[in-house]
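name: query_chain
kind: protein
chains: 1
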Amino acid sequence: MSSHRHPLELEVLTSLNHYLSKKNKNLESCPLVFVPQTIVYEHNFPTVWYQQNPATKEFKKKSGKELETKAIMNEFTRNIVVPRSGTGASGDQQDPNAAATTQTQATPAVDPNNPAASNENVMNNDNHHGIVAQFISQTEDEKTGEIINNVEFLDVDSLDDFLFKRKKRDKGILQQFITPKGPYNFVIQAIWSPHVTKIERRVNIHRITDRKNYSPYERAVTYEGPSHFSNEVFCAPHLEKEIKRVCSAIVDHFFSVEHKNITRMVLYFKVDPKNNLYLLWSSSIRIGNQKNDKPIVTVNNGNTLTPPKREPLNLSPKFNYNHFDSQEEKDGSKSKDDYGDVLDKIDSKKPKKAKSSKVDTTQSLAMTENSFDFSTRDEFDNNDGNNDCDRDEEFQKIKQDLQQELDDLLYLAYSHFLHNSEIEEQTMEFPFLMPPILLKAFGEESTLVQLFSNRDLNLTRDEREDGVYILSLKQASSMNKLQHEFTTFKEYLMECFESEGYYESNFKVQE
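structure:
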């Protein structure tokens, strides 16, 4: 029941910084965590303004008269360089992003990660992205009761409109936009649990500085929008390690101030040009019931472990894809909403074909390069007349999503085994959160376990934690051989999906 849930679970978007800023017994706020300037909006007005000391990372909170609208506007735009010509202001943000700002328009170093910026663009300030803030809000779907996340990216003009003219502002946070490291905006998603942390990164396909051709939303959106606006790439190992440290610090600090355990959470991070790691926001957090409980494990009288009875954490937060292209739509009225799911990536619209970003793809292994070309194969016999084209198109999209999940999963598994290659392979285990589409594609857990077993791989459920599975090797294998085995295993699973009728039984039947 919701009455028994911790307030942070119910108001994670607006309450997270409150618990991060709470003092522990050493009179310190949460260590290792650095957040952008964030203002909480409730009942259409700002209620608290969170800032941090760049040196000590201690939180400062402003409230009351300190939340004057003009002060917010001045602070969020104080480092903006106004262009000599054009309609939009541009520039960067607060002190941690000072490396990306400039006071002299002829200085090409304003965007060291954008070698394509010409001197002419520098003079016209076109190498500035012009985005100063993002507003993240949550609303409840009237039909389903689901929480829908809404994200807007604001330039100077739209921020002015938001602060001074907007009639209705949903409950949410106004956050200073952090200039990304590199020419493309990106966000890192971390799904944390006590046994497994899944870290992924999405990179927008449009240059963050291309203001002439794309809106702020089209240049900045990642997880918050349709998948055709961004690509999924891998994080560098050192960045993954740092994010895991921050996650652990959050969990430890929360226990020190609330005496409760965080059992699952979904966090979003970003890195600026100075390599500062920022925690942006959280879409979901799950907290244990008792003061000193270990809710991920339930021990019965028979000393057996069973999964927790509480419903699993929502690892698939919904986003509103209605991104307010026109200023007129920002008066509080909304057109028909288009919702998207983070982990279930089957879009209802055909993705635009755009050139993929090359960021971090050099880290991909050869096993991900031998993917099938699904667009040139006939998948089904033409038994349904005019429905065949629609069915084949949907089937192709499902297969693409399924293959992408397999690529990601097997890459992470291979990296895990590679980093632990000094251990006997027979004892090596890789715990992971099972992608929902993989379970759905093959219908039952037992079917998936059998398919893994057919290729000398062991797949078992971790009974201590809901949704976690363990992949282990049945026999010793060299790393080169393992890479080949993973590649052929992916092909084997895809062949099974296409030839054994799994699509017809697990997807079409439900429609």
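note: The CA atoms of residues 431 and 470 lie 4 Å apart.
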